[in-house]
Write a structure and sequence with these properties.
InterPro entries: Beta_hexosaminidase_sua/sub, GH, Glyco_hydro_20_cat, Hex-like_dom2, HEX_eukaryotic_N. By secondary structure, this protein is of the alpha/beta class.
Amino acid sequence: MSLRARINNFLIKDRHSSPASFIKGETHNHNLLPVPNSMEQSEGEFILPYNSHYTIHGPYRRERLEQAVQRFTDVLDKSSRTESAYDFQQTNASQSSNLSIQVEQYTDFYPSVDDDESYNLIIDEQGIQITATTDWGALRALTSLNQLIVQKGDHCVLPCVTIKDQPVLKWRGLLLDISRHFMPHKLVLQLLDTMAMVKLNVLHLHLTDDQGFRVESKRYPRLQSVDTRQEYYTQQQVRTLVDYAADRGIRVVPEVNLPGHCAIIQLAYPELSLKNFQPKTPNDFLGDFSPPLDITKADTYTFIENLTAEITALFPDRYYHLGGDEVPEQPWLTDPSTRIYMKELGFKTGCDLQAEFTRQYAEIVQSYGKTPIVWEEAINDRLPEGVIIQPWEKGHYRVDTTKHPIINNWRYYLDFKRPAWSYYRQSPFALEVNKRQVSPKDLLGAELSVWTESTLPETLMRTVWPQGMAIAELFWSGPSLTSRTAIADLYRRMDHNHHLMENCGLLSRQALHKDLSKLAGNNSAPLEKLADVIEPAGYHFLRQRYKIPSLLLPRLFPRSFHESDGRLFLEQLPPESRTGYLFKRNIERYLNGEKELFISLQQDLQQWRDNHNLLSDTLPNTLTGQSDDIVQLSAKLSQLAEAGLQLLLACHQQECLPETVLKPFKRLLDQCEYDTFELGQHQEVYSLLLGFLKPDTLNRHNIAIQPGIRQLFNACKQQISVMNKRQVFSRHKRRHDSDMTLSP
């Protein structure tokens, strides 16, 4: 077996190649996302009158549901193309209405983890009926109602359906890192609107890290003044954000990450630092783990207690995240005061120290009536009962889930920039706890994450959507449904709801075009054509993959290599190429018999092939520093497209291409092999060895038409196999006929 084959075999265990089929599986005749638990459709439809009436029955928070109906109407108006505006007026219970909402229980102002979000939705030709146990269920029903609307002529209509729905997971979160790159307040409010549109119900705010402490502290003002950019939320902005989220049925959970990832705290208050490990700037440890706090000092715990009192007063949710990830032990083990402290307590390792710190931090948080959450590194026997564990890295753990419920974060990192289908097939119950798969009763919920080392405010929304929709459906509908749903159907519904967000002004349809135009000026068309089918690897993959070469070969792979790699142009690109997906799906349809697609496929391939010459002539000076990457990718795209043209024509004419043609095509396809840029544990060396077998830019980018070309290649090989079998059969038949003729 060749070196390439051996390395590939090792890596393939954790690699998610493009699925064999996008169109196989169940399809749905609606645009609902997430898909409901139960839905029955009947004949007929309800035509929405422009002037409609609604009633609300039962104990409910008047202002919340009235605002929710108004938001439903606003989405209806913005997404429809009718000349007249829709208007829903509230009437009393004794009058007739087009929309009836029945709520059974009065709810608190702020949502909680145990709230009932179930709802029933019935639409017939006379109108709409919503019944829900709580306001929150009614909000989810109105979201489904917006997604069901179809425009016919100058009217909006709703199909006659009966829906019974409730979430599989009661904690369906999105973690947003606002420290590495600060996210403006208005942008986070827009993010909350989009989260509500796909029924996510927790915003986990990573408030603090080395680069910034992003919430105003009146007790410790230097946490803000030390930041030269002064990027943080005022306490009033935090209250506004929390209330805005609550109106949409979303909880806001703060994270103050300690004892590591806190260089900004040590810059502001250096007396909390270890003696020989004081940071000088917030970016001293970019790409590395910053030294932890000095946890031997009483002042450290006084600081934490005062800060916790201030933060818990701003966030009413009963959960509070302590962080606790990626704490390097070496600074502790080499600090004289810490070593004395360890000896006094009988500690031998940094893990012992972190366990003791986490116990004390958790008890402080619990004293304010909060339930602590910690990252997986903080799992230890000293954790107070009830502390929540949040796994993110390994996938297998030893933990007593009766004492420590789990919020799964493993493999749901959107900044990994993986295709939506790869997230969609990752069950939140796939964790291994005590050598068994985690059960639903052990799982409090799950979160998708957006870490912002390389995500900017202008790229946040296209990092989250539409990829996050696939995970939102997984969390609400559950893996038993998503595992049998056709990927093509998921993408169709993602498209619909992405357009819905765009029509509401929450996403910009032209944002990427504008960003690339800024770089390329008047010559942006060839660059945009290339960008349309390129998928960049995420920051975490680059950091992990180049960790070893930056240590062994620092001149070839400087520490900042993975951070400077494709910036400007490459950071603008979304995680997944919609064009690449459509091309593969159309190739699949063509090979399944839709031969009328031949002309359009041929035209696409010709344009990609010819784009390289156009790009080479117009590559703007602003991209000179990255031109090698761009030119290499453009050249490979052109070569793949040329191969695709020959393979498509051979399939269409049912001709066999000779091995002298197919072998170079196979080498090209192998060199451009599609990858989801995810390394299993301890695979960095093997990935590096494999990477030396192809241009490095192809280790960091996908050319998204490759899976479609691979399908054509396989079809041509199969065509040769079939024809060879026919020839063998024909020879045997002629021999048999000849023998029969010669026999007496």
